[in-house]
Structures are given as structure tokens and as C-alpha cells.
Amino acid sequence: MSAYRMIILSAVVVLLSAVTLTEGMRYKASPNVCCFSFQSRPLKSTLVASYSPTSSQCSKQAIL
């Protein structure tokens, strides 16, 4: 292989790696669970088995 082809191949590999890494980081940074509809009235405490807060990255805070 000529030096020119090796440079082009290296540039393509670096570019594809950069795109793959940035896409992976974008999906990793997003929260796993967000609420988009809410219960407006309180639940009976006897119906609640466990709870946890949503991620701070969600647009609205909620309890799951």
C-alpha cells in the first residue's frame, strides 16, 4: 500500500471512531426513565410497595 492510501485509511478510521464514541456518549448521558404523564392525586400508602426518584436530567421531577 502506498503512503497516501495509509493516510486516507487512518483518517477514515479516526473519523469513524470519533463519530461512534460521541454517539455512544450521547445515549449514555440520557436518563433511563422519565415521566411524561402524572397522577394528580395522592396514592394510598398501602398500594405503594417501593419508590424511587426520576433522574435529575428529566424535564420534570417525579417519584416512580
Summarize this entry quickly.
The chain is an all-alpha fold. It is 42% helix and 0% strand.
What can you see in these coordinates?
- By secondary structure, this protein is mainly alpha-helical.
- 42% of the residues lie in helices and 0% in strands.
- The chain contains 1 helix and no strands.
- It is rod-shaped.
- The mean pLDDT is 78.
- Keywords: Cytokine, Signal.
- Residues 1-24 form the signal peptide.
- Residues 33-63 form the Chemokine interleukin-8-like domain.
- GO terms for molecular function: chemokine activity.
- This is Monocyte chemotactic protein 1B-like.
Key features of this structure:
1 helix, mainly alpha
Secondary-structure blueprint:
Elements: H1 3-29
Shape: rod-shaped
Distance between the termini: 58 Å
**Counting H and I runs of at least 4 residues, what is the number of helices?**
1
- DSSP strand count: 0
**How much helical structure, as a percent, in the residues?**
40-55%
Structure class = mainly alpha
Main sheet specs: none
Radius of gyration: 23 Å
| Percentage of β-strand residues | under 5%
GO molecular function: chemokine activity
Domain Chemokine interleukin-8-like: 33-63
Protein name: Monocyte chemotactic protein 1B-like
Signal peptide: 1-24
